Amino acid sequence: MSGLELDGELVRRARELATRAAAPVVDLARTHTTVSVERATLRLAGLTGTDPVLGDGEVPWVNRVVDAVQEQVGLAHGVSLPVWHALTSGTAPDLAALAEQVGAGTARFALPDDPEPAREAARAAVGAGLARIDANRARREDLVATHGDPPRRPWIYLIVATGDIYEDIPQAQAAARAGADVIAVIRSTGQSLLDYVPEGATRTGYAGTYATQENFRLMRAALDDVSAELGRYVRLTNYASGLCMPEIAVLAGLERLDMMLNDAMYGILFRDINPRRTFVDQRFSRMVHARAGIIINTGEDNYLTTADAVDEAHTVTVSQLLNETLAHEAGLADWQLGLGHAFEIDPAVPESFRLELAHALLARGLFPDAPLKWMPPTKHMTGDVFGGYLLDGFFNLAGALTGQGILLVGMMTEAVVTPWLSDRDLALRNVRYVLSAAGNLHEDFAPRPGGFIDRRAHSVLTDAVQLLERIADHEQGLIQAIADGTFGITKRSPDGGKGRDGVFRTAAGAYNPALELMEGVRV
Amino acid sequence: MSGLELDGELVRRARELATRAAAPVVDLARTHTTVSVERATLRLAGLTGTDPVLGDGEVPWVNRVVDAVQEQVGLAHGVSLPVWHALTSGTAPDLAALAEQVGAGTARFALPDDPEPAREAARAAVGAGLARIDANRARREDLVATHGDPPRRPWIYLIVATGDIYEDIPQAQAAARAGADVIAVIRSTGQSLLDYVPEGATRTGYAGTYATQENFRLMRAALDDVSAELGRYVRLTNYASGLCMPEIAVLAGLERLDMMLNDAMYGILFRDINPRRTFVDQRFSRMVHARAGIIINTGEDNYLTTADAVDEAHTVTVSQLLNETLAHEAGLADWQLGLGHAFEIDPAVPESFRLELAHALLARGLFPDAPLKWMPPTKHMTGDVFGGYLLDGFFNLAGALTGQGILLVGMMTEAVVTPWLSDRDLALRNVRYVLSAAGNLHEDFAPRPGGFIDRRAHSVLTDAVQLLERIADHEQGLIQAIADGTFGITKRSPDGGKGRDGVFRTAAGAYNPALELMEGVRV
Amino acid sequence: MSDDSRGSIAASASERGADRGAESGRSTVSEGSVVRPYGDTTGDGMVQTSFTLPVPPGPKAEGAALQLAHKMGIEPAMVVHSHGIGEGFTFFVVYGSVRHLVDLDAVHVEERPYPLLSPSEVNAAVKARLRRSLVVLGACIGTDAHTVGIDAILNLKGFAGEKGLEYYRELQVANLGAQVSVPELVHAARARKADAVLVSQVVTQKDAHLRNTRELAGAFREAMGESRPLLVVGGPRFDPAMAAELGVDKVFGRGTTPGEVASYLVHALVPEEATP
Amino acid sequence: MSDDSRGSIAASASERGADRGAESGRSTVSEGSVVRPYGDTTGDGMVQTSFTLPVPPGPKAEGAALQLAHKMGIEPAMVVHSHGIGEGFTFFVVYGSVRHLVDLDAVHVEERPYPLLSPSEVNAAVKARLRRSLVVLGACIGTDAHTVGIDAILNLKGFAGEKGLEYYRELQVANLGAQVSVPELVHAARARKADAVLVSQVVTQKDAHLRNTRELAGAFREAMGESRPLLVVGGPRFDPAMAAELGVDKVFGRGTTPGEVASYLVHALVPEEATP
Ligand code: B12
Ligand code: B12
Ligand SMILES: Cc1ncc(COP(=O)(O)O)c(C=O)c1O
Ligand SMILES: Cc1ncc(COP(=O)(O)O)c(C=O)c1O
After folding, report:
1. Most distant CA pair in chain D: distance in Å?
2. Which residues contact A480 (CB under 8 A, 6 or more apart)?
3. Quick check: B1 and A445 in contact, CB under 8 A?
4. Which of helix, strand or coil describes residue A417?
């Protein structure tokens, strides 16, 4: 397709404004830590398992240890100094044993006078975890080299969501055999509000399957098998966003997931998670993704489910620019940015398809090196599954015409049920037909400069810049914009939301080996 | 859409060859008459009804009279001289009475020594019929002026086919209310092989409803009601092709039908009707359509149901050119030529959609002033109604992208049943979505000169010209080509097929008032 | 692609029970209250269905599909399409004529037993006859984060051209948003002296919406007994006939408009006569 | 958009009979020979269906749709979409779980009782054991003009990569084309001493194909009695299990290949032992 001629000056200005608007967030993230960041650090150091005696044995040791440290010395310095001080001073042979003591209530934590030994030990322990993440990244590169990447863009991205990992696996394999390049396992509805990561293989999720290290492992192994069978590396996706973003990011790195849903704002807007908590967590989690070579998917598409896709199109652009600048700051490269947007315009709107093309081309033009995530219609899908199947076909065509990178396959039963096996199969047949019959139509697609599509794209970009100006002018920047309900017409105050009491301003001398190792500089 | 640059020289050559290839057919038609042509003439003169005593009373008087004349004096001079000689010489007060005598076996026919009185009377009688056709044409023009034409091209053309005129009517009205601009009532499977036209309102057709003058009248009246209701003139279509082409053309004119399926070859190829019979009949029927201001639809689309749509694409082009030249010779204007073509490429063929666009643009470029009839996929439709609904959506898009004139709405149940009420409604929803969402996409559609689409169109045109050369070189031209199985890989010999004994070479002094009045010259 | 249908349905107890088996004969015309599905001819009984069976494709699978179609009352049934999905599964499309007759008289439509009021009529009624504003509390309970539905009912913006309840002067509306736990909700209802509690449930997988609604009803019964507020639930997959079964006062289904809800509140909470 | 399914099925007499009513309980796992439709969980019984009822849209119509769904055994049923068509009609899409169990053991697949032979094997068998070529006559009867199907079986070109019967040296094939009347066909069969008559029927509206096939069988019985040729019919909407009912020797359904037909002809017409 012949792209659009975007106004270079306007684009430069947009990026500069986005960086300014995001600055207060970066600042906040650099000066705080959270319970989840600290738990993630312990996970990197190899602490696993749950406390068998507490509750039904669902509470992970990492939670128990971090809570204990918080009680005894607070988290202003992070958990690493107290924990490895305890270990280096010989109260326990290893982390697991120390956790047992926490369980027994006998563990005692304190800040060391000389932090060096604790630092060293912590660095070594966490380094081992990062080494495993590095190894997984290398392994992925090998496998891609052996099996190969999908034959074309866009990559075909498909969701499984039975709630039972053992139903998910055959469905995921069937989907891969039927042509899916990326499999996403949706989480159980409630998980992102849990302040811990469940353990083990699970079969009881609602509208999704719990994200656990074991479920990750099982699914990745199953997909490695089909990858070999198909001679095509099939990627695995899960969701980071939520109260445990940093920990899930670590588990994803440890189990060689390939993509993660990770948005700087989704948890705030759609899960009512405390903004500060999310901003601190997203930065750490993105640093882990950067290290793991994982592609992130952002969630702008969600805005269009609560806000109108035509009126609020510019908020998607603004959010993409903000996600981009925050991702860069956390060390992610452009090829790792699956920025989100969606085909959510009411199909009853005249010219709806050409409007979609304009929006999709704008994103394509703004982020030429990012593998944009193209989301299917959901809001205006109804129980008319025939009409829905047609609409998904036009969504697929728009994806091909505008060179999208990751095509999330739409389901005709979107308005009815979580996808059935047959829905997924029919959806893939839809994609295959459109890509094979019309996949190269972009050669004949040439939106006229000054024409309907070009004008629309330009006006959305202009609105986006104006909105960014308003945001950047406020000293709280993005934080204030969210409080004002700028995105998805949802207002969230910095002091509200879930998990806010898990956020701590870091004191002088605070130490986190993971941040240190990942940034290469001491924090 | 920016059309294709066709090679003007090649186009000129194609037309010239087509005219040469068709010459033997025109010649044949000018020197022969058929039982159906003669019956049509009597219908123009006002003879209606059936012989109550014969069979179950299904045999029309026109058949009885023509058969009687044939027995007694032969048809080399046509029926008009013997019939009006009988009337002018006072053996019967009027045609109806004369028919009664035929029924009673008392009628005696002979050729007059002085043909003038008979000619005069015949001319007057037939003139009355033509006057009614002229009045209908004027009436149509008034109604279009009052109610208006469809708001856009393509016109939306929909089929009803219950077999029962009283089920057809509400379905046709529902379809019109749902957006159909043209309603076609498909005929009962066997009708085109009947050597007479059934009478009255019928309820017993198979896979279609009998074409009768009364059914025409009932449906036209019903559509006049909805036209007024909707403020849009809803057109009515039926089928001429078959053994009674000329008569059905006359009835269509008398009952103000607006379009007729009328192909110079369909009956030969797909109904195994004798070629000579069809060629004579089609010319007369087309002269009637020309007079009635009726738009004809040709049947090239059918070839692609028996032949491959890619390999045989050029035969469609050849047939369109032949239908054009024969139509012009019969007096039809370009605006009356709904030349047929279809979206019948196997969807599994790579680039199938772009190939369709190439073929559709070629037809559009060759016949800029003709309201091309764009037929939906049928052959490759299967019981997968979801896939079928999608394919129909892409067919609709191709129609919009390439500026087709008449869009025949495809049905998702094509491979299953004759359309249900709901199939038709869903199909119209499909059309409405595509035209409203992407109807103007042609503005952004610009097949590159020398690109895939352009090259394909050019090669099909080249193949067509080469084929036309072979046909034109043979002294029997088109007649021979058909015997060779050129179209729809179906071979038909000039001496084979149904209804051949109804063809007669006209003798010197033969007279047909209808031809005389329609051509303005004596035949 | 819009979904025109509205309003509340109740299939009569008898239909909800087991299949009464095949109706004999075929009514060629649908006279009066007995009708059959319509393909292209009155009385033809034509239906389309599709499903997947956990069997590999092949003659056996097709036979199994026909068996199921027959059990559904489709007779004759045509398997017009089938294709394998992965190993072990086959997808089918089946067309045919169902034997069953539909008895319209047996359909008990719960006619709305209250008039549809305009916002001003609602305000007037509350002001005149209740003499105080009506306190309405809204939320999505459990882990359901779908707020668009409840917002459509409550927020000013409203739905389908109708303004939401916040627009009504005499209604005091608080929208607690999503993911509110039942105990939190009970507590809030008590604290604010809510007259009505409106709850939305959109996620239905494994009947989550039914379970959550029963839990809601139970909790309020326990905590407040007779004095509990009016309980109203809604969501796209609720069958409005189930209110009693679920232990709530009223259930609204897909396509509900704010006006319908406000009118119901007046009907249920505002006395016929002005309170002295 | 291709249709993979093939071969011939027979649903057992019992299933062809009236609905046996609701199976009690819900088998959560499909053990052995009893399965249920599969949505996204084993045993969930999920199906999709759509139909039109001759009633105007509204609550009553939705209730009627639910009633029909329940009679089809869909319980619980969700009317997920409906819209009016013209006046007086409403189209519905319904999703839900069917009670019915599918008993695979009750599915009697008519296993092909003869081996699939290659063209050369067919020729060899005919030559060696019949000692003369086999005369095959093909046609579409009645007003049916759909020849593509019979051509696919007979013409050299063939179907699905297999050459048609005209390609077989030992088969003497005459294709009479379409719209052949039954008397004409009987006459031709007699005249040519046909061993087998192959007839195609594609138009099925008002069961035209069944009526025509019965007429065919009757005419041959009358005209030739025992000495009538082998009667084989085919078409996309035939149920291969119906041969007996229709009075013909064999029925082929959609997706038939020439090889299957040739192999059947050998099985049915060529003696096991060479004729002396
Ligand atoms: C928008 C949306 C989202 C948004 C929600 C944003 C938000 N703040 O609400 C986002 C993107 C966040 C989202 C997320 C998810 N979603 Co969601 N989502 C949808 C979607 C596309 C539209 C729903 C909607 O807004 N409809 C419009 C409103 C106006 O209609 P309505 O809800 O029916 O409300 C009307 C009536 O029902 C009624 N009503 C509703 N509530 C109430 C209450 C009262 C008191 C009254 C009187 C009336 C009433 O009145 C309203 C106006 O008429 C649907 C698919 C679809 N097209 O339906 C999926 C859908 C609902 N989501 C689904 C799922 C599974 C999820 C996830 C759980 C997936 C996952 N695991 O990640 C997540 C997590 C969310 C969660 N934990 O609940 C499934 C539910 C499947 C099922 N039936 O169980 C659906 C059906 C999609 C699918 N097929 O998978 N989703
Ligand atoms: C091609 C076609 C036509 C062509 C036919 C050209 C020709 N010379 O055959 C034309 C355009 C002329 C045509 C016309 C009509 N058609 Co038509 N046509 C079709 C179409 C698109 C494809 C049929 C086809 O060729 N299939 C491909 C072949 C290879 O498959 P098959 O026939 O199933 O054959 C296979 C098997 O069934 C089996 N088989 C078939 N016969 C036999 C015989 C023997 C002995 C054996 C062993 C096996 C066997 O083996 C074959 C290979 O596997 C179908 C729709 C569809 N997609 O199915 C409509 C369809 C068959 N037509 C239909 C109708 C109604 C008509 C018309 C009557 C419409 C009208 N009133 O104008 C006309 C009139 C024709 C007539 N009087 O019969 C309907 C029939 C509805 C019904 N079920 O009753 C269909 C289903 C379309 C629809 N939904 O309305 N049609
Ligand atoms: C960026 C992002 N994160 C997470 C999710 C899913 O979150 P949850 O598991 O809370 O439903 C989504 C869902 O669309 C998303 O877009
Ligand atoms: C030109 C033409 N005439 C007639 C017909 C229908 O003919 P019949 O009534 O013989 O089926 C068609 C069908 O497609 C056609 O294309």
Report:
1. 77
2. A471, A474
3. no
4. coil
A491, A483 Cβ separation under 8 angstroms: yes
* CB contact A164 to D (< 8 Å): yes
Q: Which chain A residues are within 8 Å of B393, Cβ to Cβ?
A: 390, 393-394
Instruction: Yes or no: say if D43 and D29 are a contact pair by the CB < 8 Å rule.
Output: yes
pLDDT in tens, chain B (523 residues): 457 889 999 999 999 999 999 999 999 999 999 999 999 999 999 999 999 999 899 999 999 999 999 999 999 999 999 999 999 999 999 999 999 999 999 999 999 999 999 999 999 999 999 999 999 999 999 999 999 999 988 999 999 988 999 999 998 998 999 999 999 999 998 899 999 999 999 999 888 999 999 999 999 999 999 999 999 999 999 999 999 999 999 999 999 999 999 999 999 999 889 999 999 999 999 999 999 999 999 999 999 998 999 999 999 999 999 999 999 999 999 999 999 999 999 999 999 999 999 999 999 999 999 999 999 999 999 999 999 999 999 999 999 999 999 999 999 999 999 889 999 999 999 999 999 999 999 999 999 999 999 999 999 999 999 999 999 999 899 999 999 989 988 889 999 999 999 999 999 999 999 999 998 643 3
User: How many whole angstroms separate alpha carbon A242 and alpha carbon A104?
Assistant: 30
B433/C42 touch (CB, cutoff 8 Å), yes or no: no
Distance of CA A177 to the CA centre of its chain: 25
Question: Which among B272, B382, B420 has CB closest to D179?
Answer: B272
- Which atom of ligand 2 is found nearest the CA of D201? 41
The answer to whether A234 and A156 are in contact (CB under 8 A) is: no
Residue C203 CA to ligand 1 centre (angstroms): 7
Is C1 part of the contact surface with chain A (CB cutoff 8 Å)? yes
DSSP reduced 3-state for B440: coil
Dihedral (CA of A160, A164, A169, A171) sign: negative
The H or E element spanning position B49 is none
Catalytic residue among A51, A301, A392, A454: A301
Residue A311, C-beta contacts closer than 8 angstroms, at least 6 positions apart = none
Distance separating alpha carbons of residues A142 and A138, to the nearest angstrom = 6
Q: DSSP code of C254? A: T
Contact A80, A513 (CB under 8 A): yes
Count of A-C CB contacts under 8 Å: 70
What is the C-alpha separation between C166 and A168, in angstroms, rounded? 43
**What's the CA gap between D176 and D188, in Å, rounded?**
9
Cis, peptide link before residue B494, omega less than 30° from 0: no
Write out the catalytic residue numbers of D.
157
- Ligand 4, residue B263: give the atom nearest the CA: 1
Q: How far apart are the first and last CA of chain A?
A: 46
**Annotated catalytic residue within C127, C157, C163, C206:** C157
Catalytic annotation on B301? yes
User: Which chain A residues have a beta carbon less than 8 Å from that of C208?
Assistant: 189, 206-207
Q: Which atom of ligand 4 is nearest to the CA of B193?
A: 10
Query: Is C206 in contact with A206 (Cβ distance < 8 A)?
Result: yes
Cβ neighbours of B365 (radius 10 Å): 16
ipTM of the modeled complex: 0.91
Q: DSSP character for D248?
A: S
Distance B314 CA to ligand 2 centre (A): 24
Contact A235, A155 (CB under 8 A): yes
Q: Does D80 touch chain A (CB under 8 A)?
A: yes
C86 in contact with A, Cβ within 8 Å: yes
Phi and psi, residue D94, nearest 5°: -125, 135
- The 10 Å CB-count burial string (b at 16+, else e) for B488-515 is bbbebebeebbbbebbbebeeebbbbbb
Enter the tokens of residue A11: 């684009």
3-state DSSP call for residue B350?
Answer: coil
